[in-house]
Amino acid sequence: xxxxxxxxxxxxxxxxxxxxxxxxxxxxxxxxxxxxxxxxxxxxxxxxxxxxxxxxxxxxxxxxxxxxxxxxxxxxxxxxxxxxxxxxxxxxxxxxxxxxxxxxxxxxxxxxxxxxxxxxxxxxxxxxxxxxxxxxxxxxxxxxxxxxxxxxxxxxxxxxxxxxxxxxxxxxxxxxxxxxxxxxxxxxxxxxxxxxxxxxxxxxxxxxxxxxxxxxxxxxxxxxxxxxxxxxxxxxxxxxxxxxxxxxxxxxxxxxxxxxxxxxxxxxxxxxxxxxxxxxxxxxxxxxxxxxxxxxxxxxxxxxxxxxxxxxx
Length: 313
Known about the structure:
Elements: E1 4-12, E2 15-22, E3 27-31, H1 32-40, H2 45-61, E4 71-76, E5 82-88, H3 90-97, H4 105-124, H5 126-139, H6 144-165, H7 173-187, H8 191-197, H9 211-231, H10 235-264, H11 267-279, E6 301-302, E7 308-310
Antiparallel strand pairs: 1-2, 2-3, 3-5, 4-5, 6-7
C-alpha cells in the first residue's frame, strides 16, 4: 500500500461505508466491518466486528484467499479516533459477500458492482472522473473558482512528482520530505502544523485550503519543477535545493500580496480617500495612472487624528 487519501464515507441505504483512496494504484479501499455491519443488519459496530473476526477465522481454515487480499489502514472510528481497520477492494468484497447469508447480499453486490463499473468507465474516459470530482466538491459547497484552482494545482503537483519519480527520488518518504520542505519555505509551517491549525487529521490538506493557499502551493511546486528541470536535478539532495528555492519564490509572492492587501485596507488610507472624496464633491475627479488626484482637485491628505499627511497645492 502506497500513499492513500482519506475520503468522506459513502452511503448505502443511509448506512455509512468508510473508504480510502490509493493514489498510486487508483483503487478504492472500503471498510470490511462496515460492509459486514450492513449484511448482518447490526446497529452495533462491536457485534459486526466480532462477526467479521469469526468469519476471517473460518475463511482461513477453509484455505480462502479472501483474507489475504484484505489490508489494514487507519480509518476514523465512531469515537473520532484513527484506528487500524480491515479494508478491501470492491472486487474482494463482492466475493466475500457470498460468504454471508443476508437479505442485503444482492443489493450490496449491485452497489459494489456499480462502484467497479464507474471506475472502469473513468479509466476509459478520464473526463468522467474529473467531472465526478467536480460534482463532489460542488456538493461540499466549493466555488467554481476554488474547484478550478484545486484541479489546476493537482495537475501541477502530478507533473512535479512525475519528475521526481524519473530522477531518482523515491516515492513515499522522500516525496514527503520534499513536499514538506516546499510547504515550509512558502508558508512558514510544516504540512503537519498546517493541518493542526485547520483541525485536520487524516484528511487531505489541499482539500481544505483557501483559494490563495492553493495558488501559492501551485506556484511553489511549479517553480520547484522548473528549477529542477533547468538544473537537471537528480536524487534527493539536488531536488532539496530546487524545493527550497521554489518555495522561497512562492513565499516572496505571498508576502508581496499580503503587503499590498494590508496597504489597501489600512485605516489611514481609507480615511484619506473619504476625506478627498468629500473635498472634491461636485468637481470632476480625474485620476492619474498612479491614482493621485490631478490639479482639478486638492490633494491634501487627512490622517487618523486630522493631521495633514501631504501638503495641498
